[in-house]
Design brief:
The protein has helices spanning 14-25, 45-50, 65-75, 94-104, 138-141, 157-162, 173-184, 205-208, 213-223, 230-253, 257-266, and strands at residues 4-10, 32-39, 55-60, 80-83, 89-90, 110-119, 122-124, 152-155, 187-199. It is α/β, with parallel strands linked by helices and 269 residues long. Strands 1, 2, 3, 4, 5, 6, 7, 8 and 9 form a 9-stranded mixed β-sheet that branches. It is globular and about 55 Å long.
């Protein structure tokens, strides 16, 4: 069995996907399997991945990134799972550093790394609100998603404990997952960049959905059904009310009064 299963979900991104796959195959650590889940691509993704004998290709009809990741998890054989989004890249020691971390910390369940940001090919400095934390970081995860799937490695047991990615969420599925994970587990940080995140591609999911806070509200509403420390519950309610206010204000600005009514009904807390 491989030590690590690497899962790349892909949808119509063959040129970027090629670079992502190459960044995996160039890793200094070699005891891994590479699984590419093609979520219904029509751009030659199948032919591209078939040209890499090291990769396992799985095709499914288009059901979204959560479904693609979940399919990869179900097929994975490794005790450790790592994700890579098709528009991101790994530095060549990413797997080696994270496997070493788990070897040195046998009780750890999830770790992520710092990251390098590129926007239109230019390096960017993350803002203060994007700062990464280490440990039990649920309160830091509530305002926005500060855990990147591309930067994470985790033990298979995490999915057995908290479940898979929520396939009902077309976006913010990572925000939802890391809230659930952070409620139960410490998320440790390797304070060294091991990945490159690339932004500003026109087909990124964040550009396809307006009012993304409605999906974050669904995630927080799910979290509030769980047992939480009183201070975390109060903070979650505060964040929930703040995001709901912003969402409704945006709808009012655009005169989407039916949406305002719908959100008021759906997002009571």
């Amino acid at each position: 069995m491989p030590k690590v299963s690497v899962i790349i979900p892909a949808y119509n991104r063959a040129p970027l996907l090629k670079e992502a796959v190459e960044s995996v195959l160039q890793q200094s650590f070699s005891d891994f399997e590479l699984i590419v889940v093609d979520d219904g691509s029509t751009d030659g993704t199948r032919e591209l991945i078939k040209s890499y004998p090291e990769a396992r290709y799985i095709y499914q009809s288009n059901r979204g990134v959560s479904s693609a990741r979940n399919q990869g998890i179900k097929q994975a054989k490794g005790a450790l799972i790592a994700f890579l989004d098709s528009d991101d890249l790994w530095l060549d020691n990413k797997l080696e550093r994270q496997v070493s971390f788990f070897n040195d910390n046998p009780t750890a369940s999830i770790c992520q790394s710092e990251e390098i940001w590129l926007k239109n090919g230019q390096r960017q400095n993350p803002k203060k609100r994007h700062r990464k934390y280490s440990g039990y970081i649920l309160k830091e995860c509530l305002p926005l998603c500060i855990v990147s799937p591309t930067a994470v490695m985790l033990r298979r047991e995490v999915f057995e404990k908290i479940g898979l990615f929520d396939e009902s969420l077309p976006v913010c599925e990572d925000y939802d997952f890391w809230l659930r994970a952070a409620r139960v587990y410490s998320i440790d940080l390797i304070k060294k960049p091991l990945i490159i995140k690339r932004a500003k591609f026109p087909d990124q999911l964040s550009f396809r959905y307006r009012g993304m806070d409605r999906f974050r509200l669904k995630a927080i509403k799910k979290l509030l059904k769980e047992e939480l420390p009183p201070e975390i519950r109060e903070l979650a309610l505060e964040v929930f009310r703040g995001k709901r206010k912003i969402l409704i204000r945006g709808c009012l600005k655009r005169r989407r009064y039916l949406a305002v009514l719908l959100y008021q009904l759906l997002f009571r807390c």
